[in-house]
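Much of the work behind modern protein science is quiet bookkeeping, done one molecule at a time. The protein below has been through that process, and both of its lines are reproduced in full.
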Amino acid sequence: MKRKSTPVGIAARVLLPLVSLVALFLVGELVARTLGGVRYGGWGDPASIRLVSSQFQLNTQGLRDYEIPVEKSAGETRVLCLGDSFTWGQMVELDETYAKCLERDLRASMPGRKLTVINSGRLGWNTADEYEWFLREGVRYEPDVVVVGFCLNDAEEDHYALARLLPENLEKKFAWSYFYFFLKYRVHLLKVKLGITPGYTEYILSLYSRESFAWKKAKRALRMIAETAQERGAHVLVAVFPIVSDWETYPFTPVHEDVMAFCESRAIPALDLLDAFRTSPLPWEELRVGPADRHPSAEGHRIIADGIAGAIRPMLAP
């Protein structure tokens, strides 16, 4: 005779898989947080952005820099660095960012000059965002030189994002979870491998197609930054950053050429840092902050600072 299911038995059969799933998720969460399973903040996921941004402090003006008065002091020379997370300095210390390395270089090579380099980079910004901030806030700092740190994904409107695993409203409830982001990232890699989703290389290259409205918008922003700076008597330098990866198979050289050609056509001084990275004695793996994060490491920021310093010293000559 078949035994009847009791309410306790039914509850146990329902709750046991649920409790097991919760326990598995919590173990995954612990592992992700302990081993650094979420370190890449460039795709806009709340957990990864929080992990990256919480490691750094902002000054009272909202910049990742030391306290710098908005009002310029007498005899002071200022360099303002615009940019995204490459300029911000994702996963490196403030003093390791190229802005602060540049500041030390300029002070050492120009003793007696009061020199300040201001880091106004922000996570996730594109060139249009940088122009809007420069027009609204940046000009108030009265820079003598404006350095536009141009990352190859700056010609975008929407971020290259991981597809949701859950409906949007439900996913928001997992914004605290590093493990959920880890799962999203792994599912994304599988979809790229299967050809379901375009990979990051294809995404970047698509931004610079002739039909790309985003690239047209970025070019306009570069032109407007240059014109706004020049109207105020400031010099401009566009510094084009490589996406740090294996230089032997680097796919983005044509993009560098497009950006440099545009700057030349508009008489905007520009510096392509690709060769400086390629010729570094350090292996490319040491020039970025991690295996899954292509942002420049402290050594990469040092290369950027050296290149920019050489380009702008003539601009600052008496």
Remarks:
- The beta strands are 76-82, 114-119, 145-150, 235-240, 270-272, 288-290, 293-296.
- Residues 39-48 have pLDDT under 50 and may be disordered.
- The longest strand covers residues 76-82.
